[in-house]
Specification:
Number of helices: 21
Helix content: 40-55%
Mean pLDDT: 82
Strand content: 15-25%
Strand order of the largest sheet: 5-6-7-3-8-9
Length: 670
């Protein structure tokens, strides 16, 4: 039943129904109630008589496997689809705002004007205020003055005098620059179109906000801003997201959809994962006991079914069996389970960009960039959309050559590059197996079915045409192709796109276990936090390095911001002092001495780094030579010499590890 039909019924049945609805809301504190809702798609039952309620300040995350009904439930709440049974009861005054995953377009107006139109009610109030002001200037009745006072109070209370500033704040938070405000909406791509829709929705401030994958088209800075905005949002929010960090930070309740039913878990997503596993373990134990009890009852019925003196007992057991409510277990979650091939041994420095610049026409994306990627690093590239992350990734991959500067590969480099649009490179006319085997080395052919199985392509799935695959399936197939050849450097541009939460987690675990070097771009903050050991911030044509994960990066940026404010104050004070009187000779000598001292320290540090690097290179050479000696089978016939060589090998490895630690310490001081 549609919500409009429901309200129509309320009018038709008079005050009795209206009183019940208000009484229900007063008792439960709920703004919306689902009662025995049933929903079918063709012959498949999506919801089976579900009961659920949403309170006025709830923060709810919907979880479940693809196709479980998360988007359908949001559309049902928004009144965009009808239920096939049950009722949807809504508290008086409830307003709804719904953001779909995609498909929205805006055109015909400039960006600022389009988003400002979301405040049409406030704009109408502003027009009425102006009209009343004109009347009052010519003299008006008391009723008009009362209306003006009432309207002015309401206009101020709802933020009418801050309309333009609020529009600018929301647009800036979602990643638009002030230069974008005057651009026509049709000039923005699909991802930015969804940001426009989200901006309008947030400005309307409905008291039930329904968001279907709101972070899909947002970069990390915009996600951070949206998290903070929703934390301060005064009304109810129900959302679907594959971003674990976003769910952890924003929601306080998880509702899992499975087998046509809803199960609630208090807390955020991380707590839900733990609680769900505990619940499933308990259900499994209970189901086993139940099956044992059923087996005993059925055995009794089978044994004594035809004995007249046991007829009453048999009948009792039959009725007992009919009354048992069978326990259903949630399905075992399908996951991508795989490990990357062991990487070939490479040099200490995997890859370098030296004074590299890249531009497209007059657009200068990167200028004089120096990037060094060391062996076994996990480097995350972050920055707003359009800052140049993918450009930097293409330079590292060698797909593009810099217009200036140099790209320098390390010793024995074997890289694998996963582009942001890698799935688009798949041949749509092939089936899954043919696409994987087309570029496979002969030695890997016997393993292809195992690889596809690890990426959830089993049975008839491997015969599917690439052109009919979903976005997630295409991404999984493109990732599977990375396993065909061993690599010691993975360059991954948005590998988590279209993957659900469980698939992301297994990919994350596989990358954690990978023994090579990783450079990656991801808009999933949990993924970046868990994997990165260093962050490269791309923006303003430059690249800046920060040790640690994304959380460390944000903290460092905050500290730098505080330092820069202090530095600006010091600079202003210094400029004032210079204007009042020139620095005396002693001060100049001290400044000169400080500069010379700094130069000496930097020179000493560079020499120490060079010495350590030379020592590392020497130790690596000695270790390689020793390992070649250890590969000789004859060595093991001389036990004394084998013990001597083994001890020397262990000593060299310890020395090399200490040298690496010393190098890392010096790099941190640089």
């Amino acid at each position: 039943m549609k919500r409009n039909d429901l309200l129509g019924c309320a009018i038709a049945t008079g005050l009795r129904f209206h009183f019940f609805r208000l009484k229900f809301c007063a008792i439960t504190g709920a703004m919306l109630q689902l009662r025995e809702i049933t929903k079918y798609f063709a012959d498949r039952k999506i919801f089976s008589k579900i009961d659920w309620h949403i309170r006025q300040t709830d923060r709810i995350g919907l979880c479940g496997e693809n196709g479980a009904g998360k988007s359908t439930l949001l559309k049902l709440l928004a009144g965009l689809v009808e239920s096939d049974g049950g009722s949807l009861q809504v508290a008086k005054g409830t307003t709804f705002g719904y953001l779909p995953q995609d498909g929205l377009e805006h055109n015909g107006r400039a960006l600022f004007e389009e988003v400002h139109s979301a405040l049409d009610e406030l704009q109408g109030m502003a027009q009425e205020l102006r009209a009343l002001e004109e009347k009052m200037a010519q003299g008006c009745a008391d009723a008009e003055m009362e209306r003006y006072a009432e309207l002015q109070h309401l206009f101020e209370e709802r933020g009418g005098y801050r309309m333009e500033a609020e529009v600018g704040r929301v647009l800036t938070g979602l990643g638009f620059s002030s230069d974008d405000f005057g651009k026509q909406c049709e000039t923005f791509s699909g991802g930015w179109q969804m940001r426009i829709a989200l901006a309008k929705l947030l400005l309307k401030r409905p008291n039930l906000l329904l968001l279907d994958e709101p972070t899909n088209h947002l970069d990390l800075p915009a996600r951070d801003w949206l998290e903070d905005y929703l934390l301060a949002y005064p009304y109810a929010v129900v959302l679907v997201s594959h971003d674990r960090f976003f769910l952890d930070k924003v929601v306080t309740r998880i509702v899992e959809i499975w087998n046509g039913d809803l199960t609630e878990y208090p807390g955020n997503y991380s707590k839900y994962v733990i609680t769900r596993d505990e619940r499933v373990a308990t259900l499994k134990a209970a189901k086993q006991q139940q099956e044992e009890e059923i087996a005993r009852i059925e055995a009794f019925i089978s044994r004594f079914r035809y004995q007249a003196n046991k007829a009453s007992q048999v009948q009792s057991r039959v009725k007992q069996l009919e009354k048992i409510e069978r326990i259903s277990l949630p399905p075992e979650r399908k996951k991508i389970a795989f490990t990357f091939p062991a990487p070939p041994k490479g040099g200490r420095i995997a890859l370098e960009l030296l004074a590299a610049s890249q531009q497209y026409g007059d657009l200068k994306v990167l200028q004089q960039v120096d990037v060094q990627i060391a062996q076994r690093e996990r480097v995350a590239l972050v920055g707003p959309n359009g800052a140049g992350k993918s450009t930097l990734m293409r330079l590292l991959a060698g797909v593009e050559a810099p217009v200036e500067g140099e790209r320098k590969e390390g010793h024995n480099l074997h890289l694998a590059y996963f582009a942001q649009d890698q799935a688009a490179e798949l041949n749509p006319s092939r089936d899954v197996y043919a696409e994987l085997s087309a570029e496979s080395p002969v030695a890997m052919v016997p393993k292809l079915r195992n690889i596809l199985g690890a990426f959830l392509f089993s049975g008839d799935d491997i015969e599917k045409q690439v052109k009919v695959l979903s976005g997630g399936e295409r991404n999984r197939l493109a990732l599977a192709k990375l396993l065909l050849r061993p690599a010691n450097l993975l360059l991954l541009d948005e590998p988590t796109n279209h993957l659900d939460l469980q698939s992301k987690q297994v990919l994350l675990e596989a990358l954690k276990g990978y023994q090579g070097t990783i450079v990656f771009v991801s808009h999933d903050r949990y993924f970046v936090d868990q994997l990165a050991s260093r962050v490269l911030e791309v923006g303003g044509s430059k690249v800046e390095s920060f040790l640690g994960n994304y959380e460390d990066f944000l903290l460092a940026k905050q500290q730098l911001g505080d330092t820069s404010h202090s530095a600006k104050r010091v600079e202003q004070q210094a400029q004032q002092a210079v204007q009042e009187e020139s620095l005396d000779k002693d001060a100049r000598r001290q400044a000169h001495a400080a500069r010379k001292d700094q130069q000496r320290r930097e020179k000493k540090l560079q020499k120490q780094l060079a010495d350590v690097e030379q020592r590392i290179e020497q130790l690596e050479t000695e270790l390689t030579e020793l390992e070649q000696t250890m590969a000789d089978p004859c060595l093991y016939q001389d036990q004394e010499r084998w013990r001597q060589i083994s001890a020397e090998h262990a000593s060299l490895k310890d020395q090399l590890e200490l040298a690496y630690q010393e190098w890392e310490g010096l790099q941190g001081s640089a």
